[in-house]
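Example 3.2
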Amino acid sequence: MALNKKIIEIGENDTKYHRIKNLSINLNSGETIAEIESYTSKEYRDKAKAQIEIKEKLTKLVDQYESAIKLGNHELEIALLDKLDSLRNTRLDELNKDYSVGSSFIEIDNLPEEFTLAAFYNKLIENPKFKGAKEV
């Protein structure tokens, strides 16, 4: 899920694709701040999403591999090493590259009734900066 709207900031790159990276909610005051990562195109956001997926897959495989070692399951160990080896060609610099052109922080007025990502995107569309944005 993301918002599609061309935004031109003075002295910065034109951005078109915007995703919530982080939400900070103060339940006492009701203040909600959304950190929005912006990309020049969907292509760059897709590259960032692929990075996240590979990192999650690596973490899961390493956890499974460590469990197999603890359990003494050598067959599983070897199978997991093969899977890890298949990801070996992924370069670390590619995994850590930032494809966004930056982040901005937007205060979201009034928490949505439902704490779903879709509800927070709907709230963002109410912000003047994202007014008229389309969900994609």
